[in-house]
């Protein structure tokens, strides 16, 4: 017995915890939308006022119809009938004006709220650390700021208005029905219990179904974005049929999720229509009997029938709105999930701006892993790099070379140990002040849609045209840029597709040079250019590296040989370091790697 009671209490506690979590989540959603509405509270209040006025006006026509029949037509009072007709027309004009004003005000506010939400999402995405982007597919992230925000559009611009209006109309109509005739009202309400059961079933099933729809849509967007980005690889390996089948599978699951919502709608809404027809039959059956026995006027029965339509129409509208509400809530959950993500790397409360640096870098017993579920990548790394040194990081794949570059740029923080620049612990300075003095050229230079000059001046938008041209001239990009149809003002298209891979890399070098970084990181930056292009930029590289601390991750022998210091890594540890000649004399791992590279070149 005690065990049963204990289990019962545990179940109650768990249920209470789930309800509390659900309430907190609902409050978070409402709070997010409310904060976004605050800047437009004046127009929001005006929209609500016009909505209340419209609802009151919308309740008038059926009652005016009752007066027209009972006091105008039956009493043969033409003057009174004329005034009632005038009031009827006046209410229609007022409803038109109020409805138009409310639609405009609600749409104006809603679209600005959604635009602010997109801006808030984008601003938050810019704050998140690189780990977030390495864990999540780009298409799924894009879906949050496009598909999911779009799913809120109908709710914010029309749904809230419909919810308030139909709820008020439903309540007001119920009151008027009882005022007209309580007996007929009670008889009509006998259809409400089965309608309540049908609505509860529909809500339970739809909640899960629409959540599945949002998840499947995100997968469709993510798959599509990935395949389009990798179309060159897909076509190169003739994988079109395989990728098409994979997309058909993802799209088919999205279709099935939508199909489930269609089936639910096909069951529920006809059931509501059936119950509405049953209520109408009760009104004319029982109401006609009352009119026949003189207990009700014909005008009252007519008005009752009109109000009954006003009673069931809002129920259907609210049920249809529930579909929109479910889709919006599912989308809002995804959006809130992104907003709940916190950056892994944050500035310390007392972080200061990093002053202009010389470039003395020290790794002191640095350990790092990408997460508790992954093995450690760096194991007590010790490096002391004097300012102005060009360091080549070499080693086999997985040795930790790129991880060192990510830690130096503070895309991640070490698990243990510390990294210092000129004696400043990177965790004690602001990320912005650190990265303003870093230049990073990745394996494939990423270019943005825009002109050549805009891409070169990306880190220095205020750079003069002469400075942009000088940077391009220094890395050997000036000539081919002038050969473009509009020179430096040529639009490059998405990811710089107008240029070859080597040309894009040269523009990336020019961008790094113009930024004038104190520490330069070249992550396989020359691996994507041909030998001729590499020779062309060797002189530019010397100029780019002169007077700067540089970390070069490369497999090209020319880049490695010219380095002031070569650090050989194996399984996250430094196993050798020295100049090219010193390491060859030791005949260790570097000698073997160098032999392999030389053989590849040969």
Please describe the topology of this protein.
Blueprint: H1 2-37, H2 41-58, H3 60-73, H4 78-127, H5 130-135, H6 138-180, H7 182-188, H8 192-229, H9 231-236, H10 240-292, H11 298-340, E1 361-369, E2 376-385, E3 390-394, H12 401-408, E4 416-421, E5 424-425, H13 431-435, E6 438-441, H14 452-456, H15 465-474, H16 478-483, H17 501-515, E7 519-523, H18 531-545, E8 549-553, H19 557-561, E9 565-570, E10 573-578, H20 580-586, H21 589-601
Parallel strand pairs: 3-8, 3-9, 6-7, 7-8
Antiparallel strand pairs: 1-2, 1-4, 4-5, 9-10
Q: What characteristics describe this protein?
A:
602 residues, 3 domains, 21 helices, single chain, alpha/beta, Rossmann fold, ABC transporter transmembrane region fold, 10 strands, four-stranded antiparallel β-sheet, disordered N terminus
């Amino acid at each position: 017995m005690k065990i049963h009671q204990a289990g019962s209490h545990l179940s109650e506690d768990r249920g209470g915890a789930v309800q509390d979590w659900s309430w907190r989540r609902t409050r978070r959603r409402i709070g997010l939308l409310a904060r976004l509405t605050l800047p437009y509270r004046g127009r929001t209040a005006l929209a609500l006022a016009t909505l209340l006025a419209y609802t009151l006006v919308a309740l008038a026509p059926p009652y005016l119809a009752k007066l027209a029949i009972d006091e105008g037509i039956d009493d043969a009072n033409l003057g009174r009938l004329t005034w009632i007709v005038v009031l009827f027309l006046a209410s229609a004009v007022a409803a038109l004006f109020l409805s138009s004003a409310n639609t405009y005000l609600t749409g104006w506010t809603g679209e600005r709220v959604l635009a602010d939400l997109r801006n808030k999402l984008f601003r938050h995405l810019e704050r998140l650390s690189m780990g977030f982007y390495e864990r999540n597919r780009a298409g799924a992230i894009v879906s949050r700021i496009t598909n999911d925000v779009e799913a809120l559009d109908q709710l914010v611009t029309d749904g809230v208005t419909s919810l308030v209006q139909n709820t008020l109309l439903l309540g007001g109509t119920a009151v008027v029905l009882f005022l007209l005739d309580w007996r007929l009202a009670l008889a009509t309400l006998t259809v409400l219990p089965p309608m309540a059961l049908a609505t509860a079933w529909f809500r339970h099933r739809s909640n899960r179904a629409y959540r599945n729809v949002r998840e499947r849509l995100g997968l469709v967007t993510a798959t599509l974005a990935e395949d389009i980005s990798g179309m060159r690889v897909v076509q190169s390996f003739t994988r079109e049929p395989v990728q098409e089948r994979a997309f058909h599978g993802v799209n088919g699951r999205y279709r099935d999720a939508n199909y489930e919502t269609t089936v639910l709608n096909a069951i529920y809404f006809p059931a509501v229509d059936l119950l509405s027809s049953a209520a109408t039959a009760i009104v004319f059956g029982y109401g006609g009997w009352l009119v026949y026995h003189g207990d009700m006027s014909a005008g009252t029965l007519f008005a009752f029938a009109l109000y009954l339509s006003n009673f069931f129409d809002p129920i259907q509208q609210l049920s249809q709105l529930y579909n929109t509400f479910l889709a919006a809530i599912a989308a809002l959950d995804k959006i809130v999930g992104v907003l709940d993500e916190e950056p892994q790397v944050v500035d310390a409360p007392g972080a200061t701006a990093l002053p202009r640096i010389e470039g003395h870098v020290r790794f002191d017993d640095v350990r790092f892993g990408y997460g508790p579920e992954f093995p450690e990548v760096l194991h007590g790394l010790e490096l002391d790099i004097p300012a102005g040194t060009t360091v080549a990081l070499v080693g086999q794949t997985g040795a930790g070379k790129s991880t060192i570059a990510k830690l130096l740029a503070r895309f991640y923080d070490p698990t243990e140990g510390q990294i210092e620049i000129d004696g400043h612990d990177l965790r004690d300075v602001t990320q912005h002040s650190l990265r303003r003095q870093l230049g990073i050229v990745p394996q494939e230079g990423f270019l943005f849609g825009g002109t050549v000059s805009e891409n070169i001046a990306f880190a220095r938008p205020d750079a003069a045209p002469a400075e942009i041209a000088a940077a391009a001239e220094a890395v050997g990009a000036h000539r081919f840029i002038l050969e473009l149809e509009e020179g430096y003002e040529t639009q490059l298209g998405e990811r710089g597709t107008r240029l070859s891979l080597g040309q894009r890399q040269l523009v990336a070098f020019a961008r790094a040079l113009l930024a004038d970084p104190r520490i330069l990181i070249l992550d396989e930056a020359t691996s994507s250019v041909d030998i001729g292009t590499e020779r062309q930029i060797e002189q530019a590289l010397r100029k780019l590296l002169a007077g700067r601390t540089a970390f070069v991750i490369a497999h090209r022998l020319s880049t490695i040989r010219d380095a002031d210091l070569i650090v050989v890594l194996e399984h996250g540890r430094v196993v050798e370091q020295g100049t090219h000649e010193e390491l060859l004399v030791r005949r260790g791992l570097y000698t073997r790697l160098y032999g392999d590279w030389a053989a590849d070149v040969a």
